[in-house]
Amino acid sequence: MKTIFAMLFAMVPAAMMAAEPQDTTFVVNDKKVTVEEIDGKVKVEVFDSLGNALQKTFEGHYSAEQDEERVFVNSPFLPRKRGFTGFSSRHPAFWLGYCFPTNGAFSMGKADGMHQLNSKSWEWGLNIASFENSLSRLNDLGWNLNMGISNTHLHFQDDYFLMRDGQGDVFMEQSSERLSKSYISYWTLSMSATIEKQWRIGDWRLAVSIGPLVGYNFGGHSRYKSGGQKHTVANDINLNALSLGYEANVRFGGLSLYLRQWLTPLLDKRHSPTCYPITLALGF
After folding, report:
1. Which candidate, 190, 248, 197, places its Cα nearest to that of 89?
2. Secondary structure element (H or E) that encloses residue 207, with its range
């Protein structure tokens, strides 16, 4: 190191007297040395090889008015924050899981009068577009905009099905015949804006995100299956076109636990049963 410092002191006056700014990089005894002139000041940095990475061990700033030098101590016994090379959203590209209606916003209780069969009610979805940006120097905190599309099937039990009368009211009706399957289905085009925090655990990333969600619901149907035949009861089930809610995601490695809950009713409450869908899924 003394040899390097002697070379630096010899180079600084020459660099300060140079007619044109010039950057110089060279290697001495496995140490990388850079000399750079910025606004009449000469900046000198020394990097040492520690393992597979270069760590800064010395930095000096020299000018006609003032000299400043700093020495950096690197040790495997000193804690170091490990950042990421770039911020990359861990929002699931595909999710599949259970979806069931509840009786209110932020509720887990069953929807009143829906006769739901939660064990067979499901949702799948795809993240079709996303945009992310880092909020920290270590690239471990950022925000995401995600657009997705999902298909939901809510199944019913005890031979009940959802029907619509001539006045536009939607209600549950019990069939006089045995139904092998009864459900409503619909599509949702959604957009979310989330804040995401990431941690490094060995060679893996742990990511946690949460944020508001807005959805556009369309393509609703009420159907049942009896005697091997599928019947469409209604092509209009009084879907509310706009839904508001939130989503949360916990991801470790390539697997996510994904939650989305709607805080506005799925169906028009004036003419339909009250239900607020919630989805708990695995994401990939």
Report:
1. 197
2. strand 204-226
The CA distance from 142 to 197, in Å, is: 7
Structure tokens at 32: 């990388």
Q: What's at 262, amino acid-wise?
A: W
Residue 102: which of 111, 112, 90, 91 has the closest Cα?
Answer: 111
- From CA 213, how far away is CA 244, in angstroms rounded? 6
The structure's pTM equals 0.71
* 8 Å CB contact between 208 and 160: no
Q: How far apart are CA 129 and CA 147, in angstroms?
A: 5
53 burial level (CB within 10 Å; 0-12, 13-18, 19+): exposed
Distances (CA, A) of 90 to 79, 93, 204: 26, 9, 12
Helical H segments across the chain, by residue range: 2-16
Q: CA-CA distance, 142 to 194, in Å (whole number)? A: 9
DSSP 118: G
Q: What confidence tens digit (pLDDT) does each residue in 61-119 have?
A: 666 666 666 655 555 554 555 567 778 888 999 999 999 999 999 998 999 889 999 99
Q: Which of 245, 252, 188, 261 is nearest to 219 (CA)?
A: 188
